[in-house]
Structures are given as structure tokens and as C-alpha cells.
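To close the chapter, one final illustration. This time we ask the reader to focus less on the individual chains and more on the assembly as a whole: which components sit near each other, and how the overall shape emerges from the parts.
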Amino acid sequence: MSNSVTPAIDGGASVSREQAAGAAPALRTRALSLWYGARRALDAVDLDVPARRITALIGPSGCGKSSLLRCLNRLNDEIEGTRVEGEVRLGEADVYAPDAFVHELRRRVGIVFQRPNPFPLSVHDNVAYGLRLLGIRSRRELDERVEAALKAAALWDEVASRLDDGALGLSLGQQQRLVIARAIAVEPEVLMLDEPASALDPAATLRFEELLHELAGRYTLLLVTHNMQQAARVSDFTAFMHAGRLIEFGDTDALFTNPRERQTEDFITGRYG
Amino acid sequence: MNGTRAATAATWMLGGLVGLCIATMLGLLFFTLGSGLASLRPGTLERITLADGSSRLAEVVADDGNALLLRTSETRRLGEGYERVRRGDVVARRAPVDAFMIGLGDGRRVLGIGDDAALAAAVGSVGALARVVEVLRPNALGAFEGAGIFLRRLARFVATPPDASNLAGGVLPALVGTVTLVLLMSVLVMPFGVAAAVYLHERRGVGARIVRTAIDTLAGVPAIVYGVLGLGLFVHGIGAGIDRWFYADRLPVPTFGGGGLLWAALTLALLTLPVVVVSVEQGLARIPSSLRDGSLALGATREETLWRLLLPAARPAVLTGFVLAIARAAGSVAPLMLVGMVKLAPASPLDGAFPYLHPSRQFMHLGFAVYDAALASPDAIRGVPRAYACAMLLVCVVIVLNLSAILLRNRLRDRYRALES
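The assembled structure is written out below.
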């Protein structure tokens, strides 16, 4: 199954790499460290996430991948006892500046979680939720932007006739695409996906990966995945993390075929642990 | 094998206990409804002849095996007709078809035997002194006529005010008082209950611990203590203060400084607050944290998340709290005796005069009507049927209030069912 997808992606990725080389990163961290109470979850992470590309974040469980994502949009603020050091820049903006407007930053960095988390509202209202937060009240504008987001998430054809039905009645795959539609409706610059396909069956996963490619042209995607083949298939760049540290970052093909670090090699060849 | 057997035994035991609970509940319900409705049914009039040769026309209202309790004609005073005779003394009982009964507005019943001319004469002489509310020949009633009389009595009981003695007539003011009180209570308790639950859910500090302890303690306080609290805090504290500042010209006649509907509703709101808080907090706790994160990640503030997502999703739990509060409040009578519930209110707190709802007025209550009819009337046996009827009505009020709240909740819950699984 992966064979049928890989060639097409390779073609796309080789073009993108050349373009990405000179572009400014959409998201940049410098010496980013995170503590949960006394436990250190991230250790001086320096990561440049290239704009409008897919960057995969791989590493063993508990290595800090999800923590890193939650640092980038400051969702960790909601957990008591967390402490952050270092710098995160979204474009030019300093995410952890004392006067940073957290809610505006979060809108610019969308996140999709491992298990789809549609709100207990209708399909339409799920996608319109973020738009209403922006103060959009006009029914027509809401409808148009909801439709655009659902089309971009490849869900429109399946739900066009039941926009007012509860979102919890959709299948898991549909729910995950709905959550993506909800995230991209507010036009974020970066879309982070935390193991978004792990709850999906193989067919839905395949579809989902195609969707990621369509989105990559418009958004900067940061994809956490446990699935090495998925990372290799889908991403342009890959970052390998271990024990809270960023071990290696580079072009996906290069990292998978010719890793610089011993730990990376052990992990991608399955010798790890 | 062993495990299966143990599980089976436990299943049977649990099932038995649940069955017992349901049977008790249904038994109580049917007893109350049955006794209440039976008290409104026209009873048979019998001519009872005793061994000493005397005979009287009476309705047998109770029969304990040894003795019969008769209710004979009451021409002068309510309750004078009750008479207990030994079963062994009764030599003959028969039910004459031409027996008649004249029901009077003060609850008295004048009995007689004779043709229509005799009945008309009796109505004429009795009616000169008292208001006649009902004339019937109970032994000659067909099934339909009997049912008609029963329904007419039920309507009169529910929809008319009581006689001056409060021992006869309807209970409309008590019914209105009960429903108004419970509705006003629910309007008052919900905002506070939801706010307290949200506070407890969002905060984990010392303040939240103090509030939680206070609410847990409130739940364990006996109901009558709430009455004392309401009297001291609301009536003598806040109420007297309002009178001093806004109604000084009417003093020493109290306006809000006496017991009244508002203070009673606030007292009940305190009583039901823990129920609402616990229910709403559980509902908020059941909402997966991923929904909260999802909302925050879209750029919502905590407040926006609360108003747009968490509270709407917790709506079934809020309504469950509402149902429980209503059930608790409608059944609480003791604390109300101190804060404005009276046997006979001079004016209804709900009437056609602007502003329609008069929160400072005293009110009547079905629970108190039960107590009053059963114990406070001059002789106990006479009040019991009326107590049954009042109890039946109170149970019906609670059932109707609960059912409407439950239906409302279920309609909402269908939308959120997938959340709970």
C-alpha cells in the first residue's frame, strides 16, 4: 500500500526542498526547555520549522514530542506547575513575551490531537466555533468560510447535506477531518498534528495522508507520528527527539537513509530500546 | 464456575433490592393517590340499626373489625356526626335507595331519607343558614353519575379557595403557593449553584476548599435549621433592613421584615444549593479535557470556553441539578413554617394586580395543608381524608414538576449522549 503512495510524494518533496532552503522558518525555538514540576520534559531544543512544508517529529514515547507541540501554542500554560525557558518565535513574534496576546498566538498555531475532539455541537457550529470567536456574526460569511474549510479538509462532499447534525455522529475519520477543518477555518499559519492518524484505519489513514499533502501548500505542518513509514512517506523534513532533546533534524530522505547520529539510526532501524 | 455463581447471587440480590425500592416507591405512590382519590368518592349511605333499637343514617368511614366509625348527619357543627359503634351491637345494615346527602360550604353534610319533595324541603331549610354546594342521592348513582360527582369534587378541591375554617373547600391558594414558591426557588438557586460549581471546577486553591467544605456542610444541616437561618438572616436581617430604608413610612407594620414568599424561596434555595452544585460540578468534570484544549487552541479565552462550550455541554447536568432541587424543595415544609408559610394567607402572593407576583406576602403550602388537616383539626379522624387528598395533590405537583424538568433534560441529553459514553 505504501508503495503506491511513496513515488508521488517523493516527487513533490524534491521540489519543495530546494525552495525551502532559503525561506525563513515559520516557527523557531532556541534553547527551549520545559519542566513539569521538577521533571524536565524538554532540554534546550533548537528547532526551525520550515514554512509551508511538512515537518515530522519522531521519537520514542515520552520523548517530549507532544510537550513540544503544547509549548509552541502555550497550551502548557493551562497545566499547573509548568515552567518554560528559552525562546519560541512565530514568524517575528515572541511567543513567550510577557505582553504576548496568548489567545491570538493560539489562533495562529492550530493543533489537531491524537483522538479527534469534535465539540458536542453540529458539524457547522464546530467549524464556525473559531470564526465566531473572531467576532464574525454574519450568517453568510460564516456559511461561506465553513464550506471553504470543509472543502479544504476534504469533508464537504460527505457532510454537505447534514451540516446541522451532531458532529459526534460522524465516523472517526470524518471527525478527524472535521477537527482539521475547524482548525484551518481560522486561517492559522502553522498547523500542528499530534499523531492524528493513530485512531484511523488504514484506508482512512491513506486518505488522511493525501489530505496532508494538499494542506502542505498552504500551511506549515508539524506532524508528530509514531509511524516511521508515515513520517518517511509524508514529510519533507524530520526531527528526531529523544529524552527531551532534539537529536537530529534534517531532510527526511537524508535522515532516513543516512542518519548522522547513532541514536537516530538505532531508532529508525528499530534497534532502539 | 464459582465466579459465575457468585456473580449470579450478587445479581439476584441487587435485582431484589432494586425491585424492593421500586415496589416501595410504587406502593407509596399508589397508597397516596388511592387514599386521596378515595376521599373524594361519594360513599354509600346506610341505615344502621343497633341492638338497643335505635337506628341512624350514616356513612361507614372506617371499619377496624371490632368497631365501625360512622359519620351521621351534621346539622349544627362540623364533626359532630362522628360516632363509633361496636360491631356486635349492629343488628341490621341496609342502603336505602332514597337516602340523600346535602353537602354544605363549611364541610358539614346533612343526611336524610325521602322523595324529591322531602329533599327539596330539606335543602330549603338547611340552605337558609348555610351555602349548599352539593346535593346527591349516593345510593342511587349510576357509574357515570358517580364518576361525574367525583370529578366535580376533584375540580372543586383543586380549583377553589378553602372555607374560612380551612377544614373544607378547595386548596387552590396552597397549590398556587407551592408551585410559585418552588419556581421562584429554582430561579434563585440555579445562577448561584452554577456559579459555585464553575468556581469549584476552575479553581483548586484554598478558597475553593473553603467553599467546598461549606457546601458539603450545608448538605448535612437539618431542614429546620435552615428555617431558623432564614428567619434570622433574611427576615430579621435583610428584610428588616429593607423596611427601614425603603418602607419606613409603613413601620411598624412590616413589609419585607416579616415572613414572605421571597424569604421562603431564598431559604429553600440555600437548602437545595448543595444538590445543584454537586450535580453541575460532576457534569463539568465529565466533559473531556480534550474539548477544553480544543477550544483554547482555537484562540478562545477561558471565559469564552466556559460560556460557549463547557456550560452548553454541561446542560444535561445543570438540568439534573434543577430536577433534584425541585424535588427537594417541593418536599420541604419544616423550614418554611418560620419564614412566611401560614395556615390561611390573607392575600395570595400571585394575583391579578400589578406586579402580579408579590414576594413580600405570606403564602399557603400544600405540605402545611397536609399537616394542618391531619393534626391540627379538632378531631383527628375527620381530617385524615382531607390530609390524604392534600398529600395526593402535593405528590402530583412534585411528579408534574419533575416530569417536565426530566423531559426537558432528556431532549437536551440526546444531543450530548455520545459525550457520556
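Chain A has a mean pLDDT of 86. Strands of chain A lie at 25-36, 39-50, 54-58, 82-90, 93-94, 109-112, 190-194, 220-224, 237-242, 245-251. With these observations in hand, you are ready for the problems at the end of the chapter.
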